[in-house]
Amino acid sequence: MANKGVALLVVMCLILVAAVKATEVYNPCYSYCSPACITAKKSNSLCEKYCDDECAAVENLSKLGVKFDFEKHSVTGVAGVPVDTSDGVLQGFTLLNA
């Protein structure tokens, strides 16, 4: 019974660490995306869906080692990721060192 308790504790810790890591990328992305979308005169619910989709994609790419700079609006580290870099942008970010 004690082993089950320890296993549950370990699983809960892993989930917590994964959730905290995920918000490191998602929150800055959403904070950047939402005001820009609202400024473009789109509805609040449309912006929420749009930003949620975009930031989920950014979050997934960051798990593959891609680094996003929200202030400079650029991205680095896509050389090892199978994405189309032909147009020089990825999710609206300018590619650097692709």
Automatic annotation (TrEMBL):
What SUPFAM superfamilies does its record include? Pollen allergen ole e 6
Write the record's keywords in alphabetical order, separated by commas.
Signal
Alphabetical list of Gene3D superfamilies matching this protein:
Pollen allergen ole e 6
Under what name is this protein listed?
Answer: Uncharacterized protein
Q: Which residues form the signal peptide?
A: 1-22
Q: Does the keyword Signal apply?
A: yes
Please report the organism this UniProt entry assigns to the protein. Carpinus fangiana
